[in-house]
Specification:
- The protein is α/β, with parallel strands linked by helices.
- It is about 35% helix and about 20% strand.
- The radius of gyration is 20 Å and the shape is globular.
Length: about 200
């Protein structure tokens, strides 16, 4: 038997919800209800500087006002940091992550440079794909930068991850506003050859 679909709403408690949040929460709630699925609420509270308890309380209050019901307990990202470290350790052991030393501003400049030669690829949310070359650094240069204490972010090596995972197939679903039902939007297959 196929398990029920799982939907989630994952706000950050770093400000009040806006109309886009409300739409996303209502859409996922409706889809979960219509499909006999589950709705999970995940609080993205891993930024201790910007996340505040009063914003988290306001999220619960606003969702309740909208009539949205979610499974409990709420998943708080900050309560699962050890799980994420363990997963990161597994990815690292498989050579599927690498340190990227570019700042956000530097990445923005790299995207701008690349877009001078044509459209730079973007993810489904419109964010540009990583344009840097940190993956190509020699092991000695990478070690030197790490030892120097240079700030970095760990990035997933997508080509290596897809090669490891093999072919992936999924069905994207879209919400039909005229019927209020989910409908199949497209069927996609990712293969090793589709990554450049």
């Amino acid at each position: 038997m196929t398990p029920p679909p799982v939907f989630r709403f994952a706000p950050s408690p770093n400000g009040h919800l806006h109309l886009g949040h409300a739409y996303s929460a209502l859409l996922n709630f409706d889809l979960a209800r219509q499909s006999g699925g589950r709705l999970l609420l995940r609080i993205e509270d891993i930024d201790p500087i910007r996340c505040r308890p009063e914003f988290e309380a306001a999220i619960y209050e606003d969702l309740a006002w909208l009539g949205i019901v979610w499974e409990r307990p709420v998943r708080r990202q900050s309560a699962h940091l050890a799980d994420y470290r363990a997963a990161l350790g597994q990815l690292s052991a498989q050579d599927l992550v690498f340190p990227s030393f570019e700042s956000r501003a530097e990445i923005g400049r790299l995207v701008t440079q690349r877009e001078a030669n044509g459209i730079w690829p973007r993810d489904p949310d419109g964010a540009p794909l990583y344009p840097g070359a940190a993956k190509l650094l020699s092991s000695s240069e990478r070690a030197r930068l790490l030892e120097s204490g240079a700030p970095y972010a760990l990035r997933l090596d997508m080509a290596a991850a897809i090669a490891r995972a093999g072919d992936l197939t999924w069905i994207e679903r879209a919400h039909d506003s005229t019927s209020g039902m989910a409908r199949s939007n497209s069927s996609c297959t990712a293969t090793k050859a589709s990554t450049a």
